[in-house]
Write a structure and sequence with these properties.
Elements: H1 2-25, H2 30-51, H3 57-72, H4 76-89, H5 94-109, H6 113-125, H7 133-149, H8 151-155, H9 161-174, H10 181-194, H11 198-205
């Protein structure tokens, strides 16, 4: 019975997808395309539910499309669930890298910058992820930029002087190869100078 239900769900997914692609190709009015996308996503969600955790290559592409539809409609929590599954269970598939980038885009859009840094750094180091070396470098750059934006927060509210300088130096220690490494040192030296600690500022400038 489950096999029959799975087969019926699979056929429904393919049928709606064919109609969807035809509508896109023939420039069908967006309102009609949207209804077809909804029908596809509903059928696909039923299919994915029946598949469970089975590693089926076909389900990877289907899950990505469902996640992307949710993302485009602003249903970000739903989109995150699908993208996380792709990254964790199907990391070697090419869509996993796309999913990882969309996860970061969601965190950035929601201004979750600490989460953005954590995930971008983790994705950059994730050996099994299907990103190229160039894409991994871009992921690391996202982490570096997010971390730099969080320096003042990590130092504490209204932090200045030594506390702020130490926060920038901590950033430099973590990301000294970053394009923002020199800027972090400059800001650290500036923070020391503002409170009259020229000796500490001089040491920072020599790094």
């Amino acid at each position: 019975e489950k096999k029959m239900a799975l087969r019926a769900a699979e056929e429904s997914v393919h049928a709606f997808e064919r109609v969807w692609q035809e509508q896109l190709a023939t420039k069908t009015p967006q309102a009609i395309i949207t209804k077809t996308e909804d029908a596809f996503a509903q059928s696909a969600s039923r299919y994915l539910g029946l598949m469970g955790k089975k590693k089926d290559p076909q389900s990877v592409g289907i899950r990505y499309k469902v996640g992307k539809i949710a993302y485009d409609r602003g249903r970000l929590n739903e989109a995150l669930e699908h993208f996380e599954v792709l990254v964790k269970r199907h990391s070697k598939d090419k869509v996993a890298c796309y999913a990882a980038n969309l996860i970061l885009d969601i965190h950035n859009g929601e201004k979750e910058f600490r989460r953005l840094e954590e995930r971008a750094r983790a994705f950059a180091k994730m050996k099994g992820l299907s990103c190229s070396s160039k894409e991994r470098a871009q992921l690391l750059e996202i982490a570096q930029q997010a971390a730099f934006g969080l320096v003042k927060d990590s130092a504490g509210p209204n932090a200045e002087g030594e506390a702020l300088a130490k926060a920038y130096l901590d950033y430099f220690r973590r990301y000294q190869s970053s394009s923002l490494g020199d800027k972090a040192l400059y800001q650290a030296a500036l923070a020391y100078e503002k409170v009259g600690n020229d000796k500490a500022a001089g040491k920072v400038k020599l790094k």
